[in-house]
Amino acid sequence: MTCNKHFFILKDLAESESDDQLQIITLRNPATGKPTKYLLRNDDQDLYELNCFSESNRSWFINESVCSNGKIFLPTRIDPLFLAIPYLEKNCDGKAVPLDHILVDDEFPHTSRLVKPCSRSGQLALISDEKRAGDICAYKYNEDKLMDWLRRKCIRLEQALGKERKFSRSHNFIKEEKENEREVGEMLQYAHGIVSDYLSLEHSKKLSIAVGIPEEKVQNKRKSTAELEVSQIKKIKKEEIHETTPIKPVEKKVSAKSKALAKAASGTKSIASFFKK
């Protein structure tokens, strides 16, 4: 028996939390603008990005059923402000606008569901100017606040990566000389690269200036990432063609010597015929 199911690895999933409380929606990717799958839970309070790991010829046994879809979905928490940045820049650059009028996208109707996670704990004030008039709260895009918020994220991430690196080094008995000769700003560049995965190229360049990273390194990283995506697409297309194109049988070439032997043997009886009655 087969069924249409998906295999998720989700941390801190309560026993009382049903599948209906886990909503998979499609939103605009803040870096590429392309459709991307996200997961909402806890009454739209928490936002996760979906990372998918897929291998061919794999299935899952779930209770008494077989899940033919062998993919593994690993949801990871994402700051919803990253997804709000393009809409803030577009809809409230010169004036203050209520949040429910900012997070609007005709191509992605679920964008309005970002209102809850973005308005929690006054987070939007970190990247915009907040203005109140009674019960109405409006926001105006502030690029200086945004760059400061992104810069602080890079610094915190750099510190976290540095701690992990020291921890991994302390568990290695053999240290390579190349590891000790690395540049001091390597972790900062790595942190900038991680944060830039959720930013447009323009914001990534501005952030590199804010944290003191040369702009050409940012361009090279984006170029190599784009080339990798193209190569992966070509690989997938090649595999699809290989799977759908029938394999033609290869005709074996017969040598002149083999033809001469076959001609000489024609008309003669086989050895087995002498043992038949």
Molecular structure report:
It is a single chain. This protein has 9 helices and 11 strands. The chain is α+β, with helices and mostly antiparallel strands and 277 residues long. Among the domains are: 7-141, N-terminal domain of TfIIb (Single Sheet), CATH 2.20.25; 143-164 and 187-215. The strands form 3 sheets. Strands 2-8-5-4-3 form a 5-stranded mixed beta sheet, with no helix packed on it. A 3-stranded mixed beta sheet has the order 1-7-6, with no helix packed on it. A 3-stranded antiparallel beta sheet has the order 9-11-10. A hairpin with a 2-residue loop joins strand 10 (128-133) and strand 11 (136-141). The protein is elongated and about 110 Å long. Residues 170-175 and 230-250 have low confidence and may be disordered.
Quick overview:
It is built from nine helices and eleven strands. The protein has 277 residues and is α+β, with helices and mostly antiparallel strands. Among the domains are: 7-141, N-terminal domain of TfIIb, CATH 2.20.25.530; 143-164 and 187-215.
Top-tier CATH class of the domain at 7-141: Mainly Beta
Protein structure class: alpha+beta
Q: Strands of the biggest beta sheet: in what spatial order?
A: 2-8-5-4-3
Average pLDDT level: 77
Major sheet description: 5 strands, mixed
Radius of gyration, Cα only, in angstroms?
Answer: 30 Å
Compressed to H and E, one letter per element, the order equals EEEEEEEEHEHHEEHHHHHH
- Which percent range fits the helix content? 40-55%
The global form is elongated
Termini separation comes to 56 Å
Question: Beta-sheet strand percentage?
Answer: 15-25%
Q: Count of helical segments?
A: 9
Uncertain stretches: 170-175, 230-250
